[in-house]
Design a protein that fits this description.
Elements lengths: L1 E3 L4 H14 L7 E3 L4 H5 L2 H7 L5 H14 L1 H5 L18 H19 L8 H7 L2
Parallel strand pairs: 1-2
Length: 129
């Protein structure tokens, strides 16, 4: 089970563990970074292309779950300034940050590859240049 690492995650983890123990079902809980999920969930791409009938909170939840499956696929959708890369990320210009993240995406795709039939438009767009 993917569980976001934001506010209330420890209480949610305890509640899930208590419920799973009461029905004697083992649940593997993985904490997943929530960085930028709420920012992406309100973008035009999220609202009109991927999930046209879902509210932003549900889109963010889906993104967090998908991050456990394929972090690159989800994180590449998030605006760079919303990734929470650390206290020095704001020392870079927006253009330089975008360029560095673009090169990192290209390197990651080159190292692991992608299925061009199923990769997202965001990955394809970042790596085709």
């Amino acid at each position: 089970m993917a569980l976001g690492n934001g506010h209330g995650s420890q209480q949610a983890r305890a509640l899930i563990q208590e419920a799973s123990n009461s029905v004697q079902i083992s649940v593997n809980i993985q904490l997943v970074s929530e960085a930028g999920a709420s920012m992406w969930s309100v973008t035009e791409a999220a609202a009109k292309i991927e999930f046209p009938d879902e509210p932003p909170a549900d889109i963010a939840t889906i993104s967090i779950g998908r991050r456990l499956q394929n972090p690159l696929h989800e994180l590449v959708k998030v605006p760079p300034r919303s990734l929470g890369l650390g206290m020095y990320q704001h020392d870079l210009s927006e253009k330089e940050l975008d360029e560095k993240l673009h090169l990192t995406s290209v390197d990651a795709v080159a190292a692991v590859g992608v299925d061009v039939n199923t990769c997202s438009l965001e990955i394809y767009g970042k790596c085709r240049a």
